[in-house]
Amino acid sequence: MVALSNRSMHYVAVVRGKLKKGKATTTNLIAVGDDVWITPTSPTQAIIERIEERHSKLSRRSPGRTPREQIIAVNVDYGIIVMAAHAPDFNKNRLDRYIAACSMGNVRPIICINKIDLVDEGYVRAEMALYERIGYSVIYTSAKTGQGLPELCAVLKESVSALVGSSGVGKSSLINAVQPDLGLKTNALRENFWKGQHTTTTAELLTLDMGGMVVDTPGMREFALWHHEDGNAREDVAASFPDIEEAQSRCKFRNCSHTHEPGCEVKRLVEEGAIEHARYKNYVKLTR
């Protein structure tokens, strides 16, 4: 059962049984952002008849012994990866996983370092310099002071974006800072459709008055990449490591794993310090 809404009409909808056949590869058949065709059965209820083809998606490997793909959001333009500027959330290994997931799903990643007012901003900017140098956009924000909100609004306006990150990094606070009345609107919807449900367990697609839509996702303690069975892990990950991808074209062996082969250009650059050692280790880990 899912809630569907636009500016004027809201439905609680169920999926037509025929759509569920042969769809056990994911934990959720319907995802936030899906375009669907429905048949209303009452003023507040409907049946989902068809799901339109998706042009992008953000997903992860579901927790548990039998992992499947868990789709977080679909049809989004930007994946805004929110990290708190202070420890322990300021974790570049996790950041690389989020970036890889965006690249694999045809979503443009935007890095958002929130709570920048709580730390030495110079240190954080130095840590993010590599990501900016290889072409990623980094926004430094504070929902409390308002720093970086104009830059964030410029991304959100007239686009569909998903804010992702761990619990407590300030995703919802940033959305409320951009449009304060959204808190009241979303609480009203929850009251109508999900009485008694915890407010932090589901993703929501919210419409912004300035134009555009934003998905507020629940915090995720684990974020493992989902590799399709017909895919190649190294190819999946390579696009999110453009510095390593560029260097590997000069390796001696075409199928170089960058771990033990002679004549590896990537390993040479790591030894010289041109490629950050921690980033290289994370690349190797993700491709395995």
Strand content: 15-25%
Helix content range of the residues, please?
Answer: 25-40%
Number of strands: 12
The strand order across the widest sheet is 9-8-7-10-12-11
Count of helical stretches: 9
H/E series? EEEEEEEHEHEHEHHEEHHHH
- CATH architecture title of the largest domain: 3-Layer(aba) Sandwich
Radius of gyration: 21 Å
Major pleated sheet? 6 strands, mixed
- Highest-level CATH class of the largest domain: Alpha Beta
Number of domains: 3
Categorize the overall geometry.
globular
The rounded distance between the terminal residues' Cα atoms is 36 Å
What structural class results from the helix and strand content?
A: alpha/beta
CATH-defined topology of the largest domain: Rossmann fold
Kindly report the name of the CATH homologous superfamily of the largest domain.
Answer: P-loop containing nucleotide triphosphate hydrolases
Mean pLDDT: 84
Residue runs with pLDDT of under 50 for 5 or more positions: 194-200
